[in-house]
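ok new one. same drill as before - structure tokens go in, u give me an amino acid for every spot. 408 of them this time. try not to just spam alanines like last time pls lmao
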């Protein structure tokens, strides 16, 4: 999705439909969300197959949905595009369960995701990411997305327990698995490519799990989830390994991609960025708020309730639009401006409540390391063409980012 440096424009407000995936590759949807935030209650929307869903777009409403797992369950699907009978991993994968089962699964991985655990990864991430920087050093013009396809794996590859020789194919597949860039593609072509990407990921992870991965890795701990879930009909360890990979790999690079677009187009921000000795958490938080890599998450109501004055019936689908909440004028002063030291910054990019991203500390560390290395190595950066954006209403993604770089 295109994110304007100056905020939404009237020309962007051509429709109030927030499902249509093709528009996310072309438009700045913030104009649509801003208009809908001004309306009363939750917004009624309809998917192309005729299924209705409710949309929460204001910060307070999104917060209420995300923080109440008893009323708004994750044990169905987290994406609008995956509905029908629900996600195949529903009730088995970490992000598709509710407490108490969710807590049992989460307990398996928590020791790998604490602040001290993340800090122990710092040296290794820095070394691997520095090696990746050396592969592009000196190139004056390149597609950042293609050249740095293994960037997320420098952060999560070892933690996941995935061998380095699989990082390139895994990195490319995780991007393809979220959507494409070609809005002219037929629905059949797009679905085939998504299937192919998901199959690649499952094949890689299946092989890792069969090879007895390190016990201190995510895949090494995944077998314990089978005991927690107790479902013998599904490969629960594989479903949880897949959930972790797909949760970690898109978020970090897409936050970085959107921030680089901003740095390449805003001389004042680049000047500020270049003067900093190191990247602090406030900059990372603002990058996460600005990029909001996950546009929405889906929940299903378990009981009849009322939210924002809107009647919600048991079984209704409720989408919580994180990207909209992160630009809510009632919460964020000057929300369409990137303020690198914004404080307070109560962004929802990592979610909220029991489903707040378990890997947030590792992700934040990886982004700090990247931006420190970028500052250390790059004298100037500008766009060398128009970025291409993902065809997806779920992930705010960039699939092609042509940059012109002057190296130090």
């Amino acid at each position: 999705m295109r994110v304007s440096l100056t905020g939404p424009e009237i020309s962007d407000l051509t429709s109030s439909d927030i499902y249509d995936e093709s528009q996310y590759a072309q438009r700045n949807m913030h104009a649509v969300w801003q208009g809908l935030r001004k309306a009363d209650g939750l917004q009624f929307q309809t998917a192309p197959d005729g299924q209705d869903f409710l949309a929460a777009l204001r910060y307070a409403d999104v917060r209420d949905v995300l923080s109440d797992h008893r009323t708004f369950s994750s044990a169905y699907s987290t994406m609008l595009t995956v509905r029908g009978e629900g996600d195949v991993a529903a009730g088995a994968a970490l992000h598709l369960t509710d407490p108490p089962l969710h807590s049992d699964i989460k307990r398996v991985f928590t020791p790998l995701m604490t602040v001290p655990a993340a800090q122990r990864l710092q040296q290794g991430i820095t070394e691997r990411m520095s090696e990746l920087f050396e592969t592009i050093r000196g190139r004056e013009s390149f597609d950042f997305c293609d050249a740095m396809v293994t960037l997320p794996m420098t952060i999560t590859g070892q933690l996941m327990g995935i061998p380095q020789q699989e990082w390139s194919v895994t990195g490319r597949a995780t991007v393809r698995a979220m959507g494409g860039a070609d809005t002219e593609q037929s629905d059949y072509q797009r679905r085939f490519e998504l299937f192919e990407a998901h199959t690649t990921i499952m094949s890689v992870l299946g092989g890792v799990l069969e090879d007895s991965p390190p016990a201190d890795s995510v895949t090494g701990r995944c077998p314990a989830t089978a005991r927690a879930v107790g479902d013998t009909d599904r490969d629960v360890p594989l479903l949880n390994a897949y959930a972790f990979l797909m949760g970690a790999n898109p978020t970090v690079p897409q936050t970085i991609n959107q921030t680089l677009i901003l740095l390449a187009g805003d001389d004042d921000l680049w000047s500020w960025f270049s003067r900093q000795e190191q990247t602090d958490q406030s900059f990372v938080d603002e990058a996460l708020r600005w990029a909001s890599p996950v546009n929405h998450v889906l929940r299903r109501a378990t009981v009849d309730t009322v939210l924002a004055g809107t009647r919600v019936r048991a079984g209704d689908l409720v989408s919580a639009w994180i990207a909209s909440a992160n630009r809510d004028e009632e919460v964020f002063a000057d929300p369409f401006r990137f303020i690198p030291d914004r404080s307070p910054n109560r962004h929802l990019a990592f979610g909220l409540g029991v489903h707040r991203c378990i890997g947030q500390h590792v992700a934040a560390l990886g982004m700090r390391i990247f931006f420190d290395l970028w500052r250390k190595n790059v004298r100037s950066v500008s766009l060398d063409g128009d970025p291409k954006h993902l065809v997806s209403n779920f992930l705010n993604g960039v699939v092609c980012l042509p940059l012109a770089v002057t190296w130090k």
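The two ends are 31 Å apart (CA to CA). and btw The chain is about 45% helix and 10% strand.
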